[in-house]
Amino acid sequence: MREYDIYSTKTSKWYSYLTPGDQVLPAPREAMCWTVTSADDGSSHQIIIYGGVTSGNPGLYDDSVWAISIPSFDWVQLTPENSTGTPGKRTSATCTLIGNKYMLGWGGIYLGTPQNSCDKDGNAVYLFDISQGEWVQKFEPKQEYLIPENVVKVIGGRYPPGLPCRIQLTSDTAEGRHNEVCARWRI
Predict the structure, then answer these.
(1) Contact present, 102 and 72 (Cβ < 8 Å)
(2) Which CATH code for domain 24-158?
(3) Could you give the CA distance from residue 70 to residue 64 in angstroms, rounded to a whole number?
(4) 146, 166, 177, 179: least surrounded by Cβ within 10 Å?
(5) E-assigned strands of the chain?
């Protein structure tokens, strides 16, 4: 996804954002699961996606985890290629945020079973540590969410406090408007 249409409820205006051509993006996909988490200071928000099937290619399934950071709109792959300990290639799973640091996933169709059926015999519930970018076996409820290091390397800044707003809007971007728009998107 290279182009985004963004609606500001404060100004009642639409803005367009075009991702730079050199930015690495996940393959277009469908039937993935997702959740959202935010920096403690509200300076950035990460939408996390996992699994799914590549759009237009029903035989190409995915087990990667990606984050898009808002407001910079930078995509970062959280799991390395060929990482170990993954719950495998899944489609139509469900994910939710727990403890502001973990993505809990369950169900869906596990593509390692005969006939790509529901995963009844194991690995039906799985836990991803968003801060560390890895699948884990243990939930640590007292740990705080930190923006993953590889995300900070892309979007800039230090955690905490806030991160810079790098969005470049294609309309309504007079010099002073850029900072105003970025400030509006900080919760």
Answers:
(1) no
(2) 2.120.10.80
(3) 20
(4) 179
(5) 3-8, 13-18, 29-30, 33-38, 45-50, 53-54, 65-70, 74-77, 90-91, 94-98, 102-106, 109-110, 125-129, 134-136
Residue type, 2: R
DSSP state of 43: S
Encoding tokens for residue 132?
Answer: 């560390």
Burial class, 176, CB count within 10 angstroms (exposed 0-12 / middle 13-18 / buried 19+): exposed
**Radius of gyration (C-alpha) of the chain in whole angstroms:** 18
> CA 19, CA 27: separation in Å to the nearest integer?
14
Which token pair is 52?
């799914």
Residue 122 has a pLDDT of: 57
What is residue 19's predicted lDDT score, i.e. its pLDDT? 82
What tokens appear for 137 in the block? 């076996």
Q: What are the pLDDT digits (tens) for 128-184?
A: 999 999 999 899 988 888 888 888 888 876 544 444 555 454 555 434 444 444 544
Domain positions in the chain? 24-158
pTM of the model: 0.78
Task: Using DSSP bridges, classify how beta strands 102-106 and 109-110 pair: parallel, antiparallel or unpaired.
Answer: unpaired
